[in-house]
Amino acid sequence: MRSDAGRFSAVLREYLACFALLCIAVLSSYLPAIVLRLSANPIYWVSGLISSYLPGRTAGYPWIDPNAGFTVQALGGYSAHQWFHGQIPWWNPYLGVGAPLAAEMQPASFFLPFVLLLHFANGVILLRTAMQMIAGLATFALLRQMGLANFAALLGGILYALNGTFAWFADSPILPVAFLPLLLLGVERAFIKAQEKQRGGWAWIAIALAYSIYAGFPETAYLDGLLVLAWTLYRFFVAPPDARWSFARKVSLAAVSGLLIATPLIVSFLEYQNFSAIRHSGWSHLGLPKISFAAFLMPYIFGPLHAFEPADASGLLTQHWANTGGYFSLTLLFLSLTALFGGTRLRGLRNLLAIWILIFAARTFNIPPFPDLLRLVPPLDYVVVFHYCEPSLELCGTVLAAFALDDWWRGVARKAALVACLTAFAMAALALSLSSGLVGELFHHAAHYSRWFWGSLCWAVVITWAVAVLLRRCSRNAAPLVFALIFANSFVLFAIPELAGMRNPKLDLGVVDFLRQHLGWERIYTFSPLAPNYGAYFRLASINHNAVPIPANWVEYIRQSLDPAIDPHIFIGYFPGPLTAREEVFRSHLTNFEATGVKYVLTSPGENPFTRNILVTQREGANIALPLKNGEQIAGILPPVPVKTISAIGVTIGTYGGAATGSLAAQVCAGGACSSGSAPLASAADNQSFYIPLTPELTVQSGEPLRYILTHLEDPASARQHEVAIWVWPARSRFAPLQVPGKKAMAYTPEITLSQPFSGAPARQVYHSSIADVFELPHPASYFEVQGGPCALSPHSRESLDASCRAPAVLIRRELYYPGWRAYVNGHRQTIGAASIFQSLHLPAGKTRVLFAYSPSHILPASLAMLAGLVILGFECIRRAKHLLAVYGRHMQLTDAAPTGVTPAS
């Protein structure tokens, strides 16, 4: 009894101390970004609402995939908003014409309590930090459960908490990563309990499995699950014969319990697949380019994330960054090889992990015959294995590295370090030879690339060689130095992307405020600003979307009625390019956009889909800035242009980073007719075309030259005044010299763009800023509309309204017709019909209260299944908690009874 109680206390203190160190290590990896005030918040990078910023300390991006913004922040943030307002986030009315939210998986809507972090401004970073901490703590607990020394387990926890997937990603694939070591911890606990012929030991499997599913990225969870299955089979076959079936029963019970707990999400997800336009093409023939092997071992051998892509004419670098799933690092490879060549403890498990790394690394780089072998596991043909298997490789490498460190700590097989180091260097040399062509091109075309190449190479070689020397020659007295080198390697590799974060970023939410005040229940369509899915983040209904999956009937409607050329998962106003083609399609389908409930159209500043912009002058030669102070002006003459009507004139200006004040006025004349206008510079974008609307529109006769005058005007009452710059280029021979009052005529010309309205363009501009212009369509269909009878409607929300009808009528609700929607008229359920892709409902004569509600089909039995899983898990957790409390109580009794200065034996 004394031994059990003392051991409990010692283990508790040990775990708490190591847990604290792991959390500190994770937090310290963000210190460079915090100290330098750099922001990796996706809203600044993805939303399209940033007004100003300073670049980071390095080029590139802080993460590879912008879905950190589109999906995690935008849709996950809306899920958090729903929870905080007491609503289950089943449905998203702000994407497309409505779509399932939780069933889309990637927003991790049911990933409680972690999804609630996305309610906060830096929620994406907080969520990733939480996942890193869980990953590190679970890895440490797993390694300690396997009997490894504290030193090895602690470093293993740090290695996995700062792994390559966490370093390069901040979107949904990282969320299940944290629960892989927790799953394996559960398998180890069940294995030990089966050997000891004791009950329980499987609770962590059920918890981690449920969380892996609720984390919202089934591809990562599935590949992680395959590793867990392989680990479990190994433990099954090495278990004593009398313990095997007890172990199998524990794991099976845990799997059933975990799956039952996750049933509501599984059921809704499967239903969504049946009604969605998801891609089902196979991925078995694809993989990373061979150049990626170099970055697999030396992560920044090609520079920061996406930084040098423009210098690569081959496109291999773009292919690498678009498809890689993280990195392994040369040091981790060396430690893994040391474990493989060294100690004999758990040799079978070491071999299993090495085989896993070999198979999936070969599959990642599409090395025959491994792609064909893995096709024998049919679901893998529908999973982007080379993109999402990296976390399992990193965990295998981490466990092997911990074995190597534990062997060294115990003084076992130190000679293996030299062989492992030479092997790792040979593989690094092979990787460099495979990427030599790209490296040579980057050396020739990318400024400063050589620093990244030599820095990455030297860092990887020096750190690996130093660790190898210590493990080969030194005793455990060198443990602090070994710890420092391995931690420094993980720290630096993780922190580098953070250095690309923006400095002093600022959002311009003026357009968001305008839309919140004026949009009502209708929708917007954007050509660029307010990126897709961010409508949900700000609770503004936008028909644009960037999501997988997406309802099939909505996709078909888009193709038939709105835009036949779009990708079903990316309905973005500027994609596929060019933008003029999307604007042409928009104008030709304008009535259909209005019928979808679109009230406002958002464009970049100066971009008008209802006009055709004609560039009159061209950039040739070196440009110079021509500053205009208050009252100063320039004048010029343009040659005849093929324009009949001019509604605006655009000129490329410099605002000195937004410092320009006042307004810029323009007068344009053709023959004896002139039109004029002005626009405030406060909303001007620096070094971009600045458009000045003309009143009235100017009619131009064929062959008439155009005369223009641009004048800078300040508000006399303004205390702050600052000039504006007009960018001018050397004029071609057919352009008259530029007239500048008080100076000689200049053989330069501004970059002039003329806007010609399309005939019958009905929209009017209602908002302008440096972020967006907003145009109002004249006849948007109402969200609620009645057909067949006179009715007075009083909407309270998108889900409720009061109606007063003189005769029976049909209510049209412009929300997607989708299984699971229910309607209640005066408390009585009524069937919802379909009106095109929208919902219809029969209303009786008289006053009625109408309510709409959504939940996935079969959600009641799914909820009962979840409850059953929770009950099964609850009994096991209560039983385990009683046992721990009993042990702790005995320990306290013995401590109180012990003489002063004496503690119970451990």
Structural account:
The chain is α+β, with helices and mostly antiparallel strands. Among the domains are: 506-603, no CATH class; 614-757, Jelly Rolls; 784-854, no CATH class. The chain contains 29 helices and 31 strands. The strands form eight sheets. Strands 10, 11, 13, 16, 18, 19 and 20 form a seven-stranded antiparallel β-sheet that branches. Strand 24 and strand 25 (800-805) form a beta hairpin. Helix 9 (203-214) packs parallel to helix 11 (241-261). The longest helix has 39 residues, at 859-897. Residues 900-906 have low confidence and may be disordered.
Write the layout of secondary structure elements.
Elements: H1 2-28, H2 31-35, E1 38-39, H3 42-46, E2 50-54, H4 67-84, E3 91-92, E4 99-100, H5 123-145, H6 150-161, H7 164-168, H8 180-195, H9 203-214, H10 218-238, H11 241-261, H12 263-274, H13 292-297, H14 316-323, H15 330-341, H16 347-364, H17 370-374, H18 385-388, H19 390-409, H20 416-434, H21 436-445, H22 449-473, H23 479-495, E5 502-507, H24 510-518, E6 523-526, H25 534-537, E7 545-546, H26 552-562, E8 570-571, H27 579-588, H28 590-595, E9 598-603, E10 611-615, E11 624-628, E12 633-638, E13 645-654, E14 663-670, E15 673-680, E16 688-699, E17 706-713, E18 724-730, E19 748-750, E20 752-757, E21 764-768, E22 773-776, E23 784-787, E24 791-797, E25 800-805, E26 809-816, E27 821-825, E28 828-830, E29 833-835, E30 838-843, E31 846-854, H29 859-897
Parallel strand pairs: 6-9
Antiparallel strand pairs: 1-5, 2-5, 3-4, 7-8, 9-22, 10-20, 11-18, 12-17, 13-16, 13-18, 13-20, 14-15, 14-17, 18-19, 21-22, 23-26, 24-25, 25-31, 26-30, 27-28, 27-31, 29-30
Helix pairs in contact: 1-5, 1-6, 1-29, 5-6, 5-8, 6-19, 6-23, 8-9, 8-10, 8-11, 9-11, 10-11, 10-16, 11-29, 12-29, 15-19, 15-20, 15-22, 16-19, 20-22, 22-23
